[in-house]
Amino acid sequence: MAADPAESAGDITDMFKDLFTIFIASAIINNFVFTRYLGLCIFFGVSKKMETALGMSMTFTAVMVISAALSWLVYNLVMLPLHIEFLRIVLFIGIVAGFVQFADTMLKKLNPTLYYKLGIYLVLITTNCIILAVPVINSDEKYNFLQSVTLGLGSGAGFSLALIIMASIRERLELANVPKPFQGMPIAFIVTGLIALAFLGFSGLITI
Amino acid sequence: MAVSYKKLILNGIFSENPVFRLALSLCPAVAVTTSVRNGFLMGIAVLCVMTMVNITVSILRNLINPKVRIPAYILIIATYVSITDMVMSAYSRAAYKEMGLYIQLIVVFAIIISRAELFASKNKVLPSAVDGFGMGLGFLGALVLVGAVRELIGKGSIAGIHLTGGNPLLIMVLPTGGFFVIGLLMGLFNWIDQKYYGGRPGGVGGGHH
């Protein structure tokens, strides 16, 4: 008897520990916006109002988890056996674009109210670096299926956190007396710099 | 189109500078510009991809069905990015290790797809190539400028040559520094624009022709 119960229970705890580490690391320590500088166009674009920020973060997290799962399946079941890893950029972006198009059409038919709320974000998502970064990192790190999905979820949570923090600050910034040349984008950059400085404090929380 | 080539190039470098004026493709502008060398390599990669994509889209502009144009552009871009990625990993190993992820992410740079959509899909091959080259040049310039400021303050050197004595401010090569430098440079450009040219307040934020 190779698998004694205590040992397999230990395995499961280890697995959860591992997944939890990946989640925290991708959501906070390696936060996509503040330490990897990804998704900035969207980040600055939609963080003006809390409502849009919330809609965007939900859509983003969902698309990220699903595209992480889909691209893991395609990478491990199709690309590795056929030795076509060099095509991964083309295929990953194809998967994401195809999926977003599909979700867009389905949502329009099934739930028009939700579509009118989230539709505009869905279109923006295809050409966003965060969405492509998740599959690329997954295949670089050779994560298994659960780890890949967790990375997608954690990154989505991290991005949502960033958007919500930024949206709450920018709503107040509207009322502040900012020097004229710095109004709009420049001040948003400097604020992001300050938040990034705070996030620097998380580095070393968990070492991977 | 009676637009002179010189005007197209200057347009990319100054009045529609991708980073400082249009605020597009900011991710690489913050991510890789910890030194002049990295900024330069990234800029060159984008310059090549952009020129080639504009040429290809312009050649195929009458063949692509408008309904599927965005996926078609993305596939064209992805092909050239894969080529650039392989060339870079073969010829400059050290830099590739630092910024490999960002090279692959050139695929989704808003600036490339927006030029393909707004310019190359409506113009002949040569003006499209010049437009891509000009925009790429503007991007390259912006990256080198940000890289130079960050390297000078953060490491006390420019392009690896030490200039200042004493302790450099390490914070400038950390993530935070990138945001600060771009924010301050944008503010500076807006200030120059408003003071001497009476330009649009707020400066950045789209406004294509």
Q: What is the radius of gyration of chain B? A: 18 Å
Q: Which structural category do the helix and sheet elements of chain B fall into?
A: mainly alpha
Helix-strand category of chain A: mainly alpha
- The H-and-E topology of chain A, N to C, reads as HHHHHHHH
Helix amount of chain A, in percent? Answer: over 70%
Q: Number of folding domains of chain B?
A: 1
Task: Provide the β-strand percentage band of chain B.
Answer: under 5%
Described by the principal axes of the CA atoms, the overall outline of chain A is: globular
The total domain count of chain A is: 1
What is the mean pLDDT of chain B?
Answer: 78
Helix content of chain B: 55-70%
Major sheet characteristics of chain B: 2 strands, antiparallel
Q: Tell me the number of helical segments of chain B per DSSP (H or I, 4 or more residues long).
A: 8
Distance between the termini of chain A: 34 Å
Shape summary of chain B:
globular
Q: pLDDT below 50 for ≥5 consecutive residues: which ranges of chain B?
A: 201-209
Strand order of the largest sheet of chain B: 1-2
Mean of residue pLDDT of chain A?
Answer: 80
Taking pLDDT < 50 over at least 5 consecutive residues as the criterion, the unreliable ranges of chain A are none
Q: Which two chains touch over the largest interface?
A: A-B, 47 and 47 residues
* Structure annotation, total helices of chain A: 8
